[in-house]
Amino acid sequence: MGRPQGAGILVHNGGAIGDRLRGIRRSRGLTQERLAELAGLSPGVVKKIERGGNARLETYHALARAMEVKTSALFDSTGPRRNTNADADKLDLLALRQAISPPVTITGRLGLDTVDEEPDLDRLRTSAESVAVAYHRDKYPAMGELLPELVRSTHAAVDHFATGTERTTALTVRSEVLQMAGRYLTQVRAYDLAHMALRDAVRDAVTVGDRLNAASAIIGQAWILLRQGRLDEAEQLASETADQVEPRMSRASREELAAWGWLLLRASAAAARNNRPDEARELVRLAQTAGSAVGTEVTDHLRGWGTFGPLTVRLKAIENQMIADRPTKVLAMADRLPDGVGRSTSDNWNRHRLDVARAHAMLRHGDEATRVLVDLRSAAPEWLRHQRQAAATFRDVLKTRKRTLTRDQRELAGFLAVEE
Fold first, then answer.
1. Which phi and psi angles does 108 have, rounded to 5°?
2. Burial (Cβ within 10 Å: 0-12, 13-18, ≥19) of residue 113
3. Which residues in 333-350 are b (16+ Cβ under 10 Å) and which e?
4. Under 8 Å CB-to-CB from 407, ≥6 apart: which residues?
5. Percent of the chain beyond pLDDT 70?
6. Cα separations (Å) of 299 from 27, 186, 200?
């Protein structure tokens, strides 16, 4: 059965990817028609790519898997060229862009605000925690309004405190706030700006010797690389950092275990998308060790990992099965999730439910897929609005419908901007 073709990141070809695809296909002794059959695609898709046409990352993943090579083999060493429109200078992000990447003069940031009174670091951290809770509750409009001023306030605090414990605290809070900004910007696909925020978050954490906070920011960086299709880099970054911060299990804190476990999950996700299923399974197995040691889900809204524990590991293992085009396995594993277990953060749980909807759509369970999407729209409308996979899943539902759209389906079509 073919993959849904509307989900994910559009990768621009420009001819180079088509040439690599043609070369690998021929080295495997495959015709275009046979490769398309093995990948679950139409022959026209293979022909279009080899002529220089564009395709989704998921399409390249299916082709690479059919040829038994890593997905990154189709891209050059600098990674796939992407549609830059998604990361354009959107006016609704202008205030946040000005706060994260202000112009710099010889003497420092342009337009640096003068602080009339000493910053209150306790109040600043409390404000940061409140905004972080808003993010995990999918209140995206509030994030866009509150984050710019919060970032500027952390800049002012760092500039005010030149030495001592106050400066250490100010740098720590700024690192946490920049991580939060990076997560939000990744969700709305402002990837370059998210990279800037997370790069600076790592820098601040390293400056004060906070390896846990630095690892947390690197978890966010790996997520951006995944979203951009930079799979080799994502796996290497997450794996190497996991090796560097691996805790001693006998005396590790729950937060240290969570950071280590999430790095392993990021590396596993990259390996799964890069047609390295054995490595993906081994990394999940290691993450399960961390999850078992944690015992129950542990949450820190200001850290890049949000929530980690046994349930989170199971959800990500299910996601890997979705990447491998095993919808039946996805549904079976989802059905085995224990009742009454505390949920992961809403974004991770919602992502899992979207995988379930996608699995139903692939198996032509249109009513079940619709039901999950309706539930997600009710629970997390702002989150769902930014998920391309939701629109792609619903398009697959519409392709297989045998009767007039229901009221829920008509409303979903309007919400997801999908033509009926």
1. 140, -165
2. exposed
3. bbeeeeeeeeebbbbbbb
4. none
5. 88
6. 49, 20, 23
End-to-end, the C-alpha distance of the chain in Å comes to: 23
pLDDT digits (tens, 9 = 90+) for 281-315: 999 999 999 999 998 888 877 776 778 999 999 99
Q: What does the block give as tokens for 252?
A: 């590790």
| pLDDT score at 75 | 73
- Cα separation, 272 vs 260, in Å, equals 18
Say yes or no: domain 14-75 is CATH 3.30.1330.10: no
Beta-sheet strands, E only, within 256-312? 298-300, 306-308
Interatomic CA distance for residues 234 and 271, integer angstroms: 9
**Class level of CATH domain 229-343:** mainly alpha
The H or E element spanning position 11 is strand 10-12
Q: Are 226 and 273 in contact (CB under 8 A)?
A: yes
Tell me whether strands 81-82 and 104-105 are parallel, antiparallel or unpaired: unpaired
Indicate the helix (H) or strand (E) that contains 104: strand 104-105
Distance CA 269, CA 316 (A): 8
Q: How many CB atoms lie within 10 A of CB 128?
A: 24
Q: Residue 239, Cβ neighbours under 10 Å: how many? A: 20
pTM: 0.79
Cα separation of 396 and 399, whole Å?
Answer: 5
Mapped onto helix, strand or coil, the DSSP state of residue 352 is: helix
Q: How far is Cα 214 from Cα 173, in angstroms, rounded to an integer? A: 12
- On whether the CB atoms of residues 217 and 198 are closer than 8 A, the answer is yes
For 30-87, write each residue's pLDDT tens digit.
899 999 999 999 999 999 998 888 887 778 888 988 998 888 888 754 333 334 344 4
